[in-house]
Amino acid sequence: MCLAIPMKVAQIDADGLGVADLEGARHEVDLSLIGPIQVGDYVIIHAGYAIEKLDETEAKLRIELFKELAAGWKDGA
Known about the structure:
The protein has one helix and five strands, in the order βββββα. By secondary structure, the chain is α+β, with helices and mostly antiparallel strands. It has a single domain, classed as SH3 type barrels. The radius of gyration is 13 Å and the shape is elongated.
């Protein structure tokens, strides 16, 4: 199973790499696979690569769904 996480772009470097953030967890990501990205944009990250740009509403909805899944996992549901 593949898992792709929505994250907010916090930094963009000239070499096509950047840093994405999810609630304080920051990870270096490759931004070269998708179109123009700006700091503050939300992207889907898979295996260290941004693979899709999301609008803020959709990104926040997906983040909440991940939180619900994690809570169910902890509760044994």
